[in-house]
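Retry 2 of 3 after timeout on previous attempt. Resubmitting structure tokens to design endpoint.
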């Protein structure tokens, strides 16, 4: 079911892109056909970006301009990167800012039309020298502006205005489509890339913030790899392509130069070279030959110089030197018979020229570093070398062409480059980065949950709700972690169940042990139950008021309440005749009674050694040993005072004395509750911890309920 929905959403995304391409291409063709100053190729791009997000929008932009280039407008592809920027900006605006008010729509229009107008204007001016649209060109010319700068600024302003109209129509169409297309379909298209439960903007922001602590997130690494690879491929292919083109054009130029030099040699009367040098234009046939050489020079494209000269060891003597007759600023030609010293860069070719060899396709340095030259030998009727026909072709246009080629290549590839980068980010984000980051966040939540079973179960449920279905190793990892988390939660449930059973058993043993002691004492009916209840009231009161906050933890509270029944465990060592004596105890008998504290401590220490790790027995030991110590230090067995007495023992002291006062003994009747409370209050700060007394006195209603309960049970 899940994979079926994913396929359905992907099909909807493809359909949206195809419709966007069809709309953008169709409207662009209409504007091109009627030579309108707006192009409307971005209509489909903006509509798809608004509904489906950046990647479908970029796909629509690239496909639209590519089809326009192939079909009817060869220049459309140069503006592809601008449409990809429009797609990205629109998708971000629709997702984060939203088109939910006129103010936001107007802000979007002004910002995007300015960006698009500046960029497209710069491209048109750089490639075509002005507006691509003839109507815009006519409008600019109508201003009769002499300054190129002013003309450029005027064009940019007009271009921004036309882009404003273009984008206004596009966003109006996009909002109309957004209005008529059902929300469920829009949501399916927008979320079609997710291979998990779609994340909200706030969740994505949290993931990005978490990734900022990672030295090199996967998404960043993939961007670097894709960009590096793409740039490297583009640079290598561009360099290779330019080099091949340069060599091809140079070889073709050498062939043209050789053919031109050979043609020029055929129109020159080599037997009259000496006359031409001596008499120049006065020589018979010189002017006619010069005119013919001029026409040959004009007929060859990219030819810079055409001349005839003789060569000596250090000098050359010009016979003919063709000049640009229509350009008054052109370099003046050498006169017939004018001798010129051989240039340093030309010296290496002099021996070959003196030997009558032809020189084909050499590039010169220095002043002629942009020329490729051919020297064709001119021989008279006796086959004697009399001069050379020199032809210099300029290489400058090649550099200009390559620069123009590089600009066009960058513009063409930039759109595809953005699409490739976006595709890489899209695939990496939806198939790797977001799933892994989501898993990491859920694992961190799972780790922080602790030992509470309900929270563990909620954490497992939350982890499963990510619902990753990438169909690769990431999905296998997710499923393995889900199973591991579920197993851990189940094991924790079993451990807790066993622990609870153990605790119940331990508590039962504690009560049984306490009952054994209590049953030997004829006067302590329900003593352990009442003191445990009073201890619970006091420790919770201390917690509520914030007293001893560092000490009173949930574990401490549990340990104290559970251990309270064992505070008199040492009485098991007291003989019955002393423990249950109906009359007043002698001093010796009282000393025996007092030993129940040390005996209790020994019993609990032995238990602690036997049961390792049971910390609640440590509090049982403290209460058994020190619950008869006094705050002023006059207690027993060690005469501890103040906070040197363990807190659990100070709590038990109040509970134990209050129960002794309110319970009947063989040697005394029970004190009234008010009298007992008064005596407890009087002992605050001397016999008892004043804070323990304070919270005990605050809980008098609860204390009365406990007394009533156990007194009623005693009567029954």
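Retry 2 succeeded. Sequence:
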């Amino acid at each position: 079911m899940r994979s079926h929905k994913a396929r359905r959403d992907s099909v909807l995304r493809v359909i949206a892109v195809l419709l966007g391409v069809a709309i953008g291409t169709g409207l662009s063709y209409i504007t091109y056909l009627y030579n309108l100053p707006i192009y409307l190729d971005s209509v489909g791009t903006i509509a798809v970006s608004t509904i489906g997000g950046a990647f479908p929008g970029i796909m629509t932009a690239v496909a639209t301009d590519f089809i326009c280039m192939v079909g009817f407008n060869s220049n459309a592809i140069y503006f592809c990167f601008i449409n990809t920027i429009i797609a990205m900006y629109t998708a971000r605006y629709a997702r984060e800012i939203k088109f939910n008010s006129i103010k936001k729509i107007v802000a979007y229009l002004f910002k995007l039309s300015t960006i698009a107008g500046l960029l497209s204007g710069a491209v048109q001016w750089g490639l075509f020298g002005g507006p691509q649209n003839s109507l815009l060109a006519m409008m600019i010319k109508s201003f009769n502006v002499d300054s190129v700068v002013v003309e450029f600024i005027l064009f940019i302003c007009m271009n921004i205005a036309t882009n404003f109209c273009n984008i206004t129509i596009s966003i109006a169409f996009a909002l109309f489509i957004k209005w008529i297309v059902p929300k469920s379909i829009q949501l399916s298209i927008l979320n079609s890339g997710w291979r998990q439960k779609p994340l909200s903007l706030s969740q994505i922001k949290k993931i990005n913030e978490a990734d900022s602590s990672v030295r090199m997130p996967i998404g960043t690494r993939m961007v670097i790899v894709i960009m590096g690879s793409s740039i490297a491929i583009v640079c290598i292919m561009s360099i290779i392509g330019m080099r091949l083109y340069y060599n091809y054009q140079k070889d073709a130029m050498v062939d043209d130069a050789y053919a031109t030099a050979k043609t020029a040699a055929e129109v020159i009367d080599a037997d009259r070279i000496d006359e031409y040098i001596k008499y120049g234009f006065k020589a018979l046939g010189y002017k006619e030959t010069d005119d013919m050489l001029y026409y040959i020079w004009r007929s060859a494209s990219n030819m810079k110089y055409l001349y005839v000269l003789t060569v000596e060891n250090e000098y050359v003597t010009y016979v003919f030197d063709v000049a640009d007759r229509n350009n008054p600023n052109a370099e003046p030609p050498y006169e017939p018979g004018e001798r010129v010293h051989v240039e340093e860069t030309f010296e290496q070719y002099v021996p070959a020229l003196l030997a009558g060899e032809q020189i084909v396709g050499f590039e010169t340095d220095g002043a002629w570093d942009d020329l490729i030259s051919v020297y064709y030998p001119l021989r008279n009727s006796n086959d004697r070398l009399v001069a050379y026909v020199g032809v210099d072709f300029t290489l400058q246009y090649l550099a200009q062409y390559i620069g123009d080629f590089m600009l066009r290549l960058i513009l063409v590839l930039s759109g595809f480059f953005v699409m490739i980068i976006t595709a890489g980010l899209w695939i990496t984000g939806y198939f790797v980065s977001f799933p892994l980051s989501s898993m990491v966040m859920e694992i961190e939540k799972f780790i922080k949950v602790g030992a509470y079973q309900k929270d563990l179960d909620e954490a497992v449920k939350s982890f499963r709700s990510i619902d990753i279905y990438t169909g690769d190793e990431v999905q296998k990892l997710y499923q393995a972690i889900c199973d591991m988390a579920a197993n851990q939660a189940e094991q924790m449930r079993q451990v807790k169940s066993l622990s609870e059973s153990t605790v119940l058993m331990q508590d039962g043993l504690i009560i049984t042990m306490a009952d054994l002691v209590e049953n030997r004492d004829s006067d302590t009916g329900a003593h352990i139950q009442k003191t445990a209840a009073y201890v619970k009231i006091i420790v919770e009161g201390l917690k509520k008021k914030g007293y001893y906050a560092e000490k009173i933890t949930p574990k401490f509270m549990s340990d104290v309440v559970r251990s309270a029944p064992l505070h008199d465990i040492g009485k098991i060592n007291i003989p019955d005749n002393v423990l249950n004596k109906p009359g007043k105890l002698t001093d010796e008998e009282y000393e025996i009674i007092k030993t129940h504290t040390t005996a209790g401590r020994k019993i609990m220490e032995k238990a602690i050694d036997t049961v390792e790790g049971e910390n609640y027995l440590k509090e049982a030991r403290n209460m058994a040993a020190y619950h008869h110590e006094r705050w002023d230090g006059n207690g027993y067995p060690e005469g501890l005072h103040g906070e040197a007495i363990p807190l659990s023992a100070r709590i038990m002291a109040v509970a134990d004395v209050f129960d002794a006062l309110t319970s009947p003994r063989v040697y005394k009747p029970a004190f009234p509750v008010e009298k007992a409370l008064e005596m407890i209050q009087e002992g605050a700060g001397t016999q008892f911890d004043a804070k323990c007394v304070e919270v005990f006195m605050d809980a008098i209603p609860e204390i009365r309920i406990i007394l009533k309960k156990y007194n009623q049970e005693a009567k029954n």
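Attempt log closed. The chain is about 65% helix and 5% strand.
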